Amino acid sequence: MDMRDSEILQAKTAVRLLSGLRDEHEAWPSLRYPEPAGSKELAPPKAQGN
């Protein structure tokens, strides 16, 4: 798979996400700037071994 194929897949995935959301103003910022809070919530338990 070359770069073009992966970019096409990403574009199709983005279109699916946007089509499932009614408010594009809320959809785009989350796609451009993913919230680090989600990854931070998942990281500590794995790091601490809980």
What is the strand content? Answer: under 5%
Please tally the helical runs, counting DSSP H or I stretches of 4 or more residues. Answer: 3
Nearest-integer average pLDDT: 65
H/E element order: HHH
Number of strands: 0
Share of helix among residues? over 70%
Largest sheet: none
User: What is the SS-derived class?
Assistant: mainly alpha
Features:
mainly alpha; 0% strand; 3 helices
Write the layout of secondary structure elements.
Elements: H1 3-19, H2 24-32, H3 36-48
Please explain how this structure is put together.
- The protein is mainly alpha-helical and 50 residues long.
- The radius of gyration is 15 Å and the shape is rod-shaped.
- The model has no long low-confidence stretch (mean pLDDT 65).
Give the structure's gist in a few sentences.
With 50 residues, this protein is mostly helical. The protein has helices spanning 3-19, 24-32, 36-48. The mean pLDDT is 65.
